[in-house]
Design a protein that fits this description.
Butyryl-CoA Dehydrogenase, subunit A, domain 3; four-stranded mixed sheet; globular; FAD; flavin adenine dinucleotide binding; AcylCo_DH-like_C; AcylCoA_DH/oxidase_NM_dom_sf; alpha+beta
């Protein structure tokens, strides 16, 4: 019997790009440090002196952190969550009593009203105990019902749903479908208007919190009709509504306590009053929500780094090899230095971006995306190095270690749990493209019509004139700057000299802008296909941003008299390590294997190398590569399991 064929929504590459472009926030109404960085302008004044939280937000945040720490220490059994692959009902009930469901919700709706800074500190804390609990709280508040309603909801919607979300109702965000990931133009779930309701049909995949949720944010396509502009639209949906079936609870290599599933909608009626924003605004709502929502993930990555550092320090001092602690062997010591320096930088990036979000003076869409990209990649590397430092004990499970009388350190679990962060909320590859699009926005604004094949000669001529004016002013400024003056940034020289690192950032920001311009001039309309080049451009920007944040944080700590000398040491170590990576990335812009890789890929897909696969067996099971998602009534038992239900 052949596997069912998935019904696919056929969308051209150009149509997909147009949908994604329409969902972007088009204007830059506020300054952006990262945007300026990619343009070759090192605007240190936008982040230095380091922005500080107000006294009341600190008081409220520290009070809650103390309560949350006590709860995590006494009430969360991380080993049990890993063993049973579920967060116990009593843990969720306790989090509700603490008010943890409403950390980001305003006090007038019954929430705690924490700042973004302290919300992220709370996630780092709880995520260090159990990443699954961190994911539960983050998905509920960062991308679930509270955040989109805070930005786009009507007053009636806020009054109806936010008090529930702050105290008891868990929410989930449903966008992905079995055949739709980062290309939402092919979204198949429909929402057909009928009077003052919409009727939803479709299937959603990887619904984090979806198995236990009480409220859902659902993205569905409204067909265009009279009085309905249509398009991808966001709705708040009651999870127990008739016609909703959780068909499966997914299991993963990590985050074993996460409640992630497959949800089917069949003739589900949703009041029009539950639509968030106008029809067609769904993707814009999703992307805007993620501008700050993405910060929760790197916050937990920074927390993971702190834990990796603690275990590496304790173990490397205890374990002896050839007559001395393994930490004193250079091969191991370099790994510990990397973990310490990178943890310092990650926390600097998250705290800086969080405080900038709280102040709302800057546009942080690129900063948040860079934090997500950089945090997820570096945390994975730190956990991998910890496993290597621990050797066989790093590969052994905590349960096995404990059973034979040793400290039950879940290093291998941390590695498994962190792996999803390179995929969650935009994979590394998608983040590269998203950030690259924002990074070249200024160029496309003045010269986009020049490389658009659909534009007329008249449009191209007009664009050429405008581009000439822009580049005549911009290009000369990329030749020289403060980074070439030995006296620049002298306020960052206190015993240890960080000023040289900031001069490096300034010089290489200009170099990055020149490389970007050269790439656009060389490839023009084909630039978007040069994903290897664009990824390296973005990675350079991420390193420069992290270096800047690390230096600014070190200077702040020095001025406050809190570990200033040690902070300067860590910032110096991180910047030296980052400079090596930056130099390598620049070299690989023009000297790489991208061309030959493309040829090999064509050969692989064309079957030219199938002979290379001979000599092994494939233990994979039968079935379709992508599950059938044809709309219709569910034939499965509902696996929904609300906490306490």
């Amino acid at each position: 019997m052949s596997a069912p064929t998935t019904q696919r929504t056929n969308v051209s590459e150009r149509e997909a790009r147009q949908v994604a472009e329409a969902a972007r926030e088009q204007n830059w109404r506020k300054p952006s440090f990262a945007k300026e960085l990619f343009l070759g302008r090192f605007r240190l004044d936008l982040i230095h002196p380091h922005p500080l939280p107000d006294a009341e937000s600190v008081r409220r945040g520290e009070t809650f952190l103390a309560e949350l720490r006590a709860f995590c220490e006494t009430e969360i059994d991380a080993a049990r969550i890993e063993r049973e692959a579920r967060i116990p009902d009593e843990v969720v009930a306790g989090l509700k009593r603490l008010g943890a469901l409403g950390m980001k919700i305003d006090t007038k709706y019954g929430g705690l009203g924490l700042s973004q800074l302290y919300y992220n500190k709370a996630l780092a804390l709880v995520g260090s105990v159990s990443p699954a609990v961190g994911a539960l709280l983050s998905a509920h508040q960062s991308i679930g019902v509270p955040q989109p309603l805070k930005i786009f909801g009507t007053q009636e919607q806020k009054d109806a749903f936010l008090p529930r979300c702050a105290t008891d109702a868990i929410s989930a965000f449903l966008l992905t479908e079995p055949d739709v990931g980062s290309d939402p133009a092919r979204l198949a779930t429909s929402a057909v208007p009928e009077g003052d309701e919409y009727v939803l049909d479709g299937v959603k995949l990887w619904t984090t919190n979806g198995v236990v949720a009480d409220l859902l944010v659902v993205m569905a396509r409204v067909p265009k009709s009279e009085g309905h502009p249509g398009g991808i639209t966001a709705f708040v949906v009651e999870a127990d509504a008739e016609g909703i079936t959780v068909e499966h609870r997914n299991a993963f290599m990590g985050l074993r306590g996460i409640e992630n599933g497959v949800t089917r909608f069949h003739q589900v009626r949703v009041p029009a009053a539950n639509r968030i924003g106008p029809e067609g605004a769904g993707l814009k709502i999703a992307l805007t929500t993620l501008n700050t929502g993405r910060l929760s993930l790197p916050a937990m990555c920074a927390g993971a780094g702190k834990w990796c550092l603690k275990i590496a320090r304790q173990w490397a001092a205890e374990r002896e090899q050839w007559g001395r602690p393994v930490a004193l062997h250079e091969a191991v010591g370099s790994k510990i230095s990397f973990i310490a320096a990178t943890t310092f930088a990650l926390e600097a990036v998250v705290d800086l971006a969080s405080q900038m979000a709280d102040e709302d003076r800057n546009d942080i869409r690129i900063e948040a995306a860079l934090a997500k990209l950089y945090g997820s990649e570096m945390a994975w590397l730190m956990a991998d190095e910890l496993v290597q430092i621990r050797g066989g004990r790093g590969y052994e499970t905590a349960e096995s270690l404990g059973a034979r009388g040793e400290r039950a350190v879940p290093a291998e679990q941390m590695l498994r749990d962190l792996r999803i962060n390179r995929i969650f909320e935009g994979s590394t590859e998608i983040m590269h493209l998203l950030i690259a699009r924002e990074a070249v926005d200024a160029h496309l604004s003045v010269a986009g019509d020049l490389i658009d094949p659909d534009k007329s000669l008249q449009d191209k001529a007009k664009a050429g004139a405008g581009a000439g004016v822009f580049y005549a002013k911009w290009l000369p400024k990329l030749v020289a700057g403060p980074g070439q003056l030995p006296s620049s940034y002298a306020e960052f020289k206190h015993g240890i000299d960080l000023s040289g690192h900031l001069r490096f950032v300034e010089r290489h920001a200009r170099k990055l802008a020149r490389a970007t311009f050269y790439g656009m001039s060389r490839w023009q309309g084909r630039m978007e296909t040069k994903q290897g080049f664009l990824g390296r451009i973005v990675d350079v920007g991420a390193e420069l941003f992290a270096m800047s944040a690390a230096c600014v944080r070190a200077e702040r700590l020095r001025r406050e008299g809190e570990h200033g000398r040690e902070a300067y040491q860590l910032a110096d170590a991180f910047c030296r390590q980052a400079r090596v990576r930056v130099d390598e990335l620049f070299a690989r812009l023009w000297h790489n294997t991208d061309g030959v890789d493309r040829k090999v890929v064509k050969g692989v897909l064309g079957g030219a190398y199938e002979w290379l696969e001979e000599g092994v067996l494939d233990p994979s099971g039968d079935g379709a590569w992508i599950a059938d998602a044809t709309p219709g009534a569910s034939e499965r038992v509902n696996a929904r399991r609300p906490y306490g239900g």
